[in-house]
Amino acid sequence: MTTSSGANRFAFSQTHTIDGCQARAGEITTPHGVIQTPAFIPVGTKATVKAVLPESIKDLEAQAVLANAYHLYLQPGSDVVDEAGGLGEFMNWSGPTFTDSGGFQVLSLGVGFKKVIAMNEDTFRSDEVIAEKKERLAHVDDDGVTFKSHLDGAMHRFTPEISMQVQHQLGADIIFAFDECTTLHNTRKYQEKSLERTRKWAIRCLKEHDRLTKERNHRPYQALFGVLQGAQYEDLRRKAAQDLGGMNVDGVEFDGFGLGGALDKEKLGTIVGWLCEELPQNKPRHLLGIGEPDDLFVGVENGADTFDCVAPSRQARTSAVFTPRGRVNMTNAKYKRQFSPIDQTCDCYTCQHYTAAYLNHLFKGKEMLAATLATIHNERFIVRLVADMREAIIAGDFFELKEDFMGRFYGQAT
């Protein structure tokens, strides 16, 4: 569904492509502003990018933020966010917003794995897989998911309809259909069963989304993205893209697509490429949970438009920061007397106002400000990197940018 009237506008336009790959530049228009793509979207899981003011996220030129429907449903409750006027009003963020469906949290609760990108398909196969020393907190059936709150142990139920209701209350500009996110350890037979379950859930999401859009017409239009699964299997990935890419329920279609699920890092580009070859060119594609520099280049090169990941902020809180010559640890002794910025070429607030020696001191002293300053730097680094990719696509020198950056960043950090 694409609307074009006043404050309810949602649209996507592809403006530039380059020969030799699927990389493209474009614009996503939402009721709260335009996102120039490719773009990295910082994650504010609980309506906050940890340790950083929303105003600081705006100042580092992030165009949108993504929050987590599962976490906000549990605390403070999606009804509270709705009463506040929606996610943007609640967190004092005037730009575009995203919320994910909670499908990934079901994977995490169900099997205890977090960084699925690090999985490798050449390992064991089991449909009862669970991480060591983890309790299974979620159980999936054809109607939905029953899960135990990690906060207080209370039992909850998510179905496609409930996920849509929660996300409509949260009020983000871009929301995602409820899906089952499998692991690379599941058997082929289970992946097939799960893919069909996600397809049927997608139909239910479209129906409920349409009902809620009509019922809540006092709110700006929310774009619904379908989520594509299929693990490492080409035929399943292409089927998912064909099924959801062409899905039409009583005249309602997906506005864009989330490229999701467990991904073997070594096959990331191949899998994204399969999906983007099948998807309609006139709709945006969001690659869920990807934020490492090399993975961002791979995603852009193979047709993804937007990305989100907690990695820049999570790593910042452990004193790991990005520089043009790689990731460095601010607690290292060499920074104790570096009275210059982390990166003299960086335009972020941290590098413009503070020295590496000061950050070293803050981390050594376990001061809260350390996380704030390091997160500002890391988020700006990744936001700027993807913005540079956009400019390189427009200028026609994307591959030159990739070669130069990769050669410096993945060499020896100094």
Molecular structure report:
The chain has 414 residues and is an alpha/beta fold. The protein folds into two domains: 6-308, TIM Barrel (Alpha-Beta Barrel); 320-409, no CATH class. 39% of the residues lie in helices and 17% in strands. The protein has helices spanning 54-59, 69-74, 78-83, 87-91, 103-111, 160-170, 188-215, 234-245, 268-278, 293-301, 311-316, 349-353, 356-364, 368-395, 398-409; strands at residues 11-17, 24-30, 33-37, 39-42, 65-68, 97-100, 138-140, 145-148, 155-158, 174-176, 223-228, 256-259, 285-287, 306-309, 320-323, 326-329. An eight-stranded parallel β-sheet has the order 4-14-13-12-11-10-6-5. Helix 8 packs parallel to helix 9 (268-278) and helix 9 (268-278) packs parallel to helix 10. It is globular. The chain starts with 10 loop residues before the first strand and ends in a 5-residue tail after the last helix.
